[in-house]
Amino acid sequence: MGNATPALVALLLASCGTSIGFGSAPAPSDASADLLDTSGGAPDSGPLPDAGPPSVEPLRSGPVRRIVSGGRITFCALSSAGAYCWGNGHFGVFGDAQRGTFWDRPQRLPLDEVSDIGIGSTLLCALLRSPGDVLCAGDNRSGSWAPQAAREILPFTVIPGLHDSTSLVRRIFETPGAIRGDGEVAFSPPALNCLAVRGVLSVELAVGHSCAVLTSGQVYCCGYNRYGQLGVPRSDGYWSGFVPGINDAVAVATSETTTCVVRGAERRVWCWGYDSEGQMGVGPAPVDGCDLEFSLRGLTRCFPPTALALDHVVYLEKGWNNFCAVRDDGSVWCWGVNYAIWNSDQSSFLDGPAERESCQRDTPDVRHRSYCRSRPVRIQGIPPALQIVSARGTVCILDRTGEVWCWGDNLLGELGDGTRVSRTVPVRIIARPE
Length: 434
Fold this sequence. Notes:
It is a single chain. This protein has one domain: 7 Propeller (Methylamine Dehydrogenase, Chain H), CATH 2.130.10. It is globular, with a radius of gyration of 20 Å. β16 and β17 form a beta hairpin. Helix content is 0%, strand content 41%. By secondary structure, it is mainly beta. The chain starts with 17 loop residues before the first strand and ends with a strand.
């Protein structure tokens, strides 16, 4: 343990979901009283009819093996046919060196053999299978990731210092990051790295702090700890070290003030840090005013590492002030901010117009008025899933057949269905070849 200097703290907007391979999985346990299953015990109905008009056909490029979201509401999918993206391509992140690009249908990136993608607010990075090079496209006017071409919006350009990488930091801000073959986290430029450990299995970055799961099962965090988001007692300033008492973690997801991991043979979710909008997932709790100075009305709570009533998790994802998990039966559970879908009485968790918990802060963004779920709620009306990703009021899942379904806001084409119509029913946008 030790103190990290401010210059070494990765102030990056990032978070990628983590998929967990376990081989044969045990049968999931019954939902407890702390899980809100609104299905009444009814099984999933399987794949759904498309919600778009008959003229909207899904892209036939499946099966998809992974989906990614990030940046300014940008989505991508990786399949054997290539890497496809849709949504907000501003700052040239799709590699076209153009401002103001919006793709309302999935389109193939001009790259071959892409094995991973990382999305930032002003750049998009791709990892090539061989030789493990990282290429990025987007806004480089600051010169932060390609000093030789500062003040330019660049097409895909090889990033020095990230060769022989095995995976990417998939949600980034202005600095490309990757996990190297020796399990070391590397950034370009390297001065932004506070994760000075090896044997990293997965890494999550947020504004102000970062956490990594090691092959040993330990969790290493660094950065700000005002809300206890590093897993140790709250303090001002910077801190770095291993989260005490955790040596069985297999996945991690971080928001700005809250961290969640999947632990142990039960693959149970544990969370710690700040809880003003249900993002801890433990239900209503007494207010302790841990952020009285800055939080609206002081209605906040801060928690040490705490177990949720959610186990058998095979995928964990952080959204915008919320978290979602996929269980080994394909069911999807979410908690935290539950964004209202534009011009409808539905919300991103698809829990209908029924009474919801009000968030403990007023949101200035009326278009995205929000509700909250302080306990995990099961998303209904979707096929069994492998992954879920989101960007505020827009949500996409990858189902078990390799097809992609999306719903929610669609003002920038982020649903990928060829329209700008928001959807309250999932629409299939990438399907398997006929």
